[in-house]
Amino acid sequence: MGTSQRPTIKTVAARAGVGRTTVSRVLNGSPLVSDAAKAAVQAAISELNYVPSSVARSLVTSRTQSVALVIPESESRLGSEPYFSAVIRGVSTGLSDTPFQLLLILVRDQRELDQLRDFLAARRVDGVLLVSVHRDDPLPALLEEFGLPAVLAGRRSAAESLSHVHSDNAGGAAEAVRHLLRRGRRTIATITGPLDMDVGHSRRQGWRDALREGGADASEALAEPADFTEEGGRRAMRALLERRPGLDAVFAASDVMAAGALAELRRHGRRVPEDVAVVGFDDSIVARHTDPPLTSVRQPVEEIGSTMASILLEEMDEADEADRPGGGRRQVLLPTSLVVRESS
């Protein structure tokens, strides 16, 4: 090669005839690489005696070899919402063949936010995964300010500047509502997630789009926001029944809220699905254990976690390279599908 410089991802990519991202994925054990590309990269690594920067840097600096998964929620939410445990499993899987330890950090109040700010400023982790993002959440801006590699589950808005992974929330909601319309339902209400979260806003948008497309009522009186909790689902269902007692279907933006809606419908003497059909979102374990079992939009939550980990590993590797590209953000949209059970 005629150079004494340490080879970088760039030189490995050039030798293997692939892009830098492909090299990163091979180094991080990502499944998103063909066997041929993997073989070419491994051959180039061997020929160039390339040492991945994560290994080289940890020998000469105080690299922490740890990644933080930050969840700005209470322990009760963490325990009652299957979404979080599925994301954690996915992230763990994504990091399992790497030297990185996973730190779980809950941020429940201003004191814990201040502690996290100090923790990140001191570079106590090499990268951050952030779950449950609200529009005015100070954490994403903090991560950008510190220049830490970071990946979000979800996004603040369609203009999100940080790398993120999310499901097709609007498409999944629209598919749920089209299913209800095909079943002959005409007055279809929705229990939304918090509307300061893109996930809440997008699922409501999918509900509205499908109703308009089907020529059905999409008025605001049929939409009630809640907070992704079972009690929130009960309260929202109660409000909807008061406003629109003749409703014949409900799309709830999470299975946990749908479970609350089912309990409230039973309390009001409404049979499911005979009087009111119900569809949830997540296809979590909750959907299989409600009475009746719940039709739900399946989103690949574990894959969200493992994809976040894979992207973060790439970003951390690039951060180690002197020739890091400017602001190479990655956005991954994962598909959803409808699982039909007895509730609809």
From TrEMBL:
Keywords: DNA-binding, Transcription, Transcription regulation. Pfam families: LacI, Peripla_BP_3. InterPro entries: HTH_LacI (IPR000843), LacI/GalR-like_sensor (IPR046335), Lambda_DNA-bd_dom_sf (IPR010982), Peripla_BP_I (IPR028082). The lineage of its organism: Bacteria, Bacillati, Actinomycetota, Actinomycetes, Kitasatosporales. Residues 7-61 form the HTH lacI-type domain. CDD domains: HTH_LacI, PBP1_LacI_sugar_binding-like. Residues 318-344 are annotated as: Disordered. It comes from the Bacteria. PANTHER family: HTH-TYPE TRANSCRIPTIONAL REGULATOR GALS, LACI-RELATED TRANSCRIPTIONAL REPRESSOR. The keyword Manganese does not apply. SMART domains: HTH_LACI. Coiled coil: none annotated. This is LacI family transcriptional regulator.
